[in-house]
Amino acid sequence: xxxxxxxxxxxxxxxxxxxxxxxxxxxxxxxxxxxxxxxxxxxxxxxxxxxxxxxxxxxxxxxxxxxxxxxxxxxxxxxxxxxxxxxxxxxxxxxxxxxxxxxxxxxxxxxxxxxxxxxxxxxxxxxxxxxxxxxxxxxxxxxxxxxxxxxxxxxxxxxxxxxxxxxxxxxxxxxxxxxxxxxxxxxxxxxxxxxxxxxxxxxxxxxxxxxxxxxxxxxxxxxxxxxxxxxxxxxxxxxxxxxxxxxxxxxxxxxxxxxxxxxxxxxxxxxxxxxxxxxxxxxxxxxxxxxxxxxxxxxxxxxxxxxxxxxxxxxxxxxxxxxxxxxxxxxxxxxxxxxxxxxxxxxxxxxxx
Length: 353
Known about the structure:
Elements: E1 6-11, H1 40-47, E2 57-62, H2 66-72, E3 81-84, H3 89-104, E4 109-114, H4 122-138, E5 142-147, E6 158-161, E7 171-177, H5 182-191, E8 194-204, H6 205-215, H7 217-229, H8 232-235, H9 244-249, E9 255-260, H10 273-277, E10 285-295, E11 301-313, E12 318-323, E13 326-331, H11 338-348
Helix pairs in contact: 3-6, 3-7, 6-7
């Protein structure tokens, strides 16, 4: 445990639509058991190791997912789960977490952690987290983690770092950049001082609250008003829907980034699984309870919610998903477009979402 009082705040309210049909409204991506029989939410908590005890782990999720999240993390106190009545993106969630942590201890440091990331090297992660906790506890800064890019990704936002590290490895942030097109992504990779925005942050409660007052008071005001009245959920819908990056970090001048090189994935869509789970000799990746029978088939991703045999013959580069009576088959390069099916089902068959 760090000497500074530290909280881990897990953001678990996402819908994970690009992992449909396994990811549904009542059981989204963060609750799927994709890795070693445990959910991504539980893996996020267990990754904290000795950094936090159950009393210091908070979970912000949707009202619909509060019960499933509590069932998955049943060692946490019920008072550490916060149910958002409507989705308002991450700024409102972070504001609620900041108000709650400050209520307990305004000098406490807390980390904001999306509950659907995969970080296999937990020990290296905790080394980086301890460094961030130390900096945040001593300085009035907002700390983020920047992933060293390995290819010109267009699915991530980027952080332009100053390029000169202090003795602890931290750099000043020049700017945040939204998801680029291919040409700009290649430029960022060549420049050498651009990092992927991991969406993980560390700061003292009092410091991030001051940042909200300076840069996004319209987000913080209803949260604080609701807290004073003892009912944040009632006031929560009044907060504008903004990502915390846009609301705070892009506007603040006290942001520091720690470049990191340990393996990381936000599992953006089904084709992300091979980089996490690995493949067989034919480049095929299986997950869940699927048992693959592949003949002359390569570079496919196959998932089955239960134990089920899936046979492939003479195909290449497919995603095949079987879950709750629905089967998805698509080329891997079009897997991001599964949201088009989700949008269509909203009108035609909402019971499948």
